[in-house]
Structure formats: structure tokens, C-alpha cells
Amino acid sequence: MFDINHFRASSRALSPESVGWAGIGWDAASPADIAAMGVPYALKLTQVAPTGPADAAGLMAGDFVTTINGSTFRDAADFQSRASGLRPGQAVRLGIVRNGAATTITVTLGDWSDVKDLSITTIGL
């Protein structure tokens, strides 16, 4: 599971600028799910922060994220690396699979410093 405090500390250490966030929590998709989708890797959303940017864009717990800005990712660390450079106000295109159907959802990122409720795991994407 993703560690919010580690991400927040490492993101701020790397850049003094604000870090964008979508308001999602995730785990690695199972090998069976990845094989069924025919993708190199996927993340399964476990949480979507109510009223956060991802919620506003229509992401739901149970969605599988398969691409970020049109590119696949090798593993969770690769996904996290790509997400860590995104800033508030940027639009990020997430390729998802929901109930077996692939689509793309665009999320306009919020400002990480505005996150008040740390009870929901959120990442810098």
C-alpha cells in the first residue's frame, strides 16, 4: 500500500513547488487481472477521496489504471515517478478499465497543500 507521509516528505524535498494530487489510493492489480487486460502493469484503485479531483472526474474505487498520459508503466514505482512531477492545475489523462471496458478519464489535479483529511490515502497524482 502507498505511504502518504513518505510520498509527501519526498515530494516536498525534491521540489519547493506545490505538488498536484488526484485523491486516490491504490494497490497493484493481481497478475490475473493484468493478464486479462493485456497490459504490462495496472493499479487497482482502492479509494477515491470524496469531493477530490479524481472523484470529480468520475474515477471510482475498483477502476484499474493502465496508462498515465497515454503511456503504460512498468510497475508502481514507475507510475509514482511519472506522477510526482505533476503540478496543481495540470490535466492528467488516466487510461482505465472499468467492468472490462477501457476508457480514458482526464483529472485536473488539485493542490497537495490543500489536502486536509489524511485519513484517506492520496497520492501526488
Automatic annotation (TrEMBL):
It comes from the Bacteria. Residues 11-100 form the PDZ domain. PROSITE patterns: PDZ. This is PDZ domain-containing protein. The lineage of its organism: Bacteria, Pseudomonadati, Planctomycetota, Planctomycetia, Pirellulales.
